[in-house]
Amino acid sequence: MNPSRTRALSVAVLASAGALLGACATGPRQGATWAEASLGPGSRLLAGRVLVACEAPDFALQRACEDQVAAELRARGAEPLRVPEGTAVQGDRALDPQLVPAAAAASARAVFVVSLQPTAPEGGSGLSIGLGGFSVGRGGGAGVGLSAPLGGGGGSWGLAANARVTDVAPNRLAWTTTVSTGAAPTPQAQSAALARAVIEAARAGGLL
Fold it and tell me: What's the pTM value of the predicted model, to 2 decimals?
């Protein structure tokens, strides 16, 4: 075969493969968003100090989520704070209002909580979720395992993130949004994409 035609064919095959991979990777999809009526488009509630926490199927993903959300906030000029070690939270009630006293003590204006949930797999992806509860805040929670095969499995799975901003002064939910994402090599990669998406949604809503 002519070398020039061989090179052209190789380029075409690579381009087709890249397009196929791009089609298979599903980026973050924005769901419903709600804002408290008095919040206003320029509230910049997250522009100063903000207490950050994540809820996730296991502790490793929880900590990765908190690192990712904090990094995204910091990159936009906010001052993210971790939940102080030893903060007691109850797993049978909403996490957000339980963190308001710690946020107020740290002079934070808001509490930012991101809850990660695995979405339903399609076609038998091999995603497995152990039963027993979710890791919540610094309370530890039950040890739930989330695992996914790398490089195969025959289906697709994802994560959904529900992000919530609580205004510390009135201890009131001020804003919330839901974002989901499709297949990715690891749950951490999905969590990183969701962190960027929810922070961008908050920025678009005037909170940053």
Answer: 0.73
